[in-house]
Batch of 3 targets.
Target 1
Amino acid sequence: MIDHIDHLVLTTRDKAKSIYFYTQVLGMALDTFGAGRIAFKFGEQKINLHEVGLEFLPKAAIPTPGSLDLCFIAGIPLEQVIVTLGRHNIPIIEGPVQRTGANWPIRSVYVRDPDNNLIEISEKATTIYG
């Protein structure tokens, strides 16, 4: 029945810091739509941004900044991701480490966004592991 994810919603305490992180650090495109709504687009997906206390309806029952744990597949080698994170003073909290992705083994680093959401950035692993 389900084919793929179209979008998800991220609730933030600080709109400007989120915009900077997702566009300048992660390289997503800023998209505005509707009546001043904001999203971060990448590939064929997007992340809609809600500000805590100003969420659009309908919304999650308990929209909470910092409750997401997301994994993104990078379009560049993980070593370049690490350099980019360093340039923006984003600390890596774990990695690079081997993980299991949805379709293949991945190699990942973990960081936190401005709302303390866990962000995993990965590349397809070149070797199979156990």
Target 2
Amino acid sequence: MDTPLWLWFAVIAFIVVMLAIDLVAHRRAHVIGVKEAAAWSAVWIALGVGFGVIVWVVWGADFGQQYFAGYLIEKSLAVDNVFVWAIIFAHFAVPPQFQHRVLFLGVLGALVFRGIFIAGGALLIQNFSWVLYIFAAFLLYTGFRMIRQRDEHLNPDQSRVLGAFRRVVPMSDTFHGQRLLVRKGGLIMATPLLAVLVLVETTDVVFAVDSIPAIFAVTDEVFLVFTANAFAILGLRAMYFLLADLVHRFVYLKIGLALVLMWVGVKMLLKIDVYYIPTPLSLAVIATILAVSVVASLRATRGQERQSLPTPAEPPFHIATPDEDAQLEPLLRRARSRERSGTPA
């Protein structure tokens, strides 16, 4: 697959432009409703599918099928990520109007980290082909573990990363709008929103460890691995606001995701020395597993309405009052100096 350097720059530039549009559209903190989330989800899915169609037309059906297989894997695994985010936001009682900013920055960080992981994975495969055995074994183990632990949920209080963050970084117990850092009494402190962002980024890194080897099982093309990841991740924020209140209904989805990981693990093992499973067959198996798990979940829980995850009876943080916001000092001392001297910024 011939992908000139200018094409990489063009795709990255397009991603940056779309992120900027999304940021401008949500520059003011507000609660994102189901209709708005559905509209944005449709936009992101259309972009992802549209790019796949371009790949199909320009580079042929085989590469197009590889892209769609990778996109479907990443999109489906991202749903589990969405459910973990819902648990994190509920645990810390993050106000709905502030959640989009955290997710925007989280997705931005995810794109960077996954780009690094993809480059590292491609380099390992290119120089040490035996690493595919490790990837395949890891996918099989992860799938088996997901089935065994399907009823277990993340407990944010047990996060070592979050614990280390709290010990090292001074932190306020108050949400100050969408600010991540504030200065009070001459001390710069992290707001709870920054702590939540750290936890969101950490969970995405953990999910990337599963998803990156999985997509390498269906395509060796680094360009397809990156673009399938990028277009799947770009729609995560909208997907969260669309599905967060439906977590309780996808009771069999984790089993479906586990079977997908195990399937691509088997595919990778066979691909090394035994037999290459055709991409159309692999795509059909993945789509069937996901469709069955979703339909079975919705049938088993039919009649249940949307419901938010329970939040603590006594939320660990509260939203700042106007008086508390007024006590904040300029974050940068230069800004304070300008204010004192009357010099415009």
Target 3
Amino acid sequence: MLALITNDDGIASPGLVVLARVAQAAGYDVVIAAPKAESSGASAALHGAELDGRLMVEPAEPPGLPDGVRAFAVSADPALITFSAAYGAFGARPDLVLSGVNRGPNVGNAVLYSGTVGAALAATSLGIRAVAVSLDAADPVHWDTAEQVAAHALAWFATVDAGRRTLNVNVPDLPPGELRGLRQAPLASFGAVHARVVPADPLEAGRRGDDVVIRYEGTERHTEPESDAGMLDAGWATATLLVAPWADTTLAVPPLG
């Protein structure tokens, strides 16, 4: 069985290696393919850079890369990476996609805009089991807590008939001993998500290194304590099952003509 690890924070993020270890411990062969640059807020966009009609891919070695894991930096948004992997871009079609561990939460209805969640939803829509994992800090410290929660969530999710469901997991940036546990939670009304804003001249911005990452966040941590945002703020890791795009025919649209 093959697991693809991707993210929207880029190939240098330590969260990739965390999920690679989780997948290896669960018995998967692992390949990492992640954006060459920050792609936060990309949702399920299919943007990529091509050279002579081919997606630009280069070998990479994220810090702490486990033995036996191949890694690639891809000039593309994470959903395009997932889409490409499903059609053999990085070897065999993956049986599992793990997206993250994201730096910062992906909670509430704002997950619609998340590149981390977008990659996982893209996988599910292609018939691949997928889990997105996020850690609630812009500069996380407790990656070991995220690894523990992700391993627990995957052990359950791998055994159920998930159908068109994607598992979205958020973890507080706390030591394992201070984590209250894991609870299933509904989406907050808006929630929180990161996005990257590039100044008007992207080439000049790249030379100066002054891309801006902004965070959209609602107030649900205080006003919706039973939501994923509220429970995360209270020290719980949260699990939310999302449904990949599907057609709902329970409400009839009147025909025209």
